[in-house]
Design goal:
The chain is an alpha+beta fold. The chain has two helices and three strands, in the order H-E-E-E-H.
């Protein structure tokens, strides 16, 4: 089972609980987007669930994206050993 599949399955279970931090709406859509971030001087690329409110159009990443990025750093550190 791939990591992406596991994340998508977890996402489906939690998606109903997402609230827009800007307007409070529960009408939040999720798309998977490529994200690149720096860990020190190393660029790490991951796919993360990006949220957008259907009402006010506010776009955001949440704890699930941060969790995926944290796991990517852990994987990088394990490979480096």
């Amino acid at each position: 089972m791939s990591k992406k599949y596991l994340f998508e399955k977890e996402l489906q279970m939690s998606e109903n609980n997402i609230t827009c931090a800007e307007c409070g709406s529960k009408k939040v859509n999720t798309t998977w987007e490529d994200n690149e971030f720096l860990y020190g001087e190393i660029k790490i690329k991951v796919k993360v669930p990006a949220r957008q409110c259907s009402i006010c159009k506010f776009q955001f990443l949440d704890w699930e994206s941060e969790d995926i990025m944290g796991k990517a750093v852990d994987d990088y550190l394990k490979e480096k050993e």
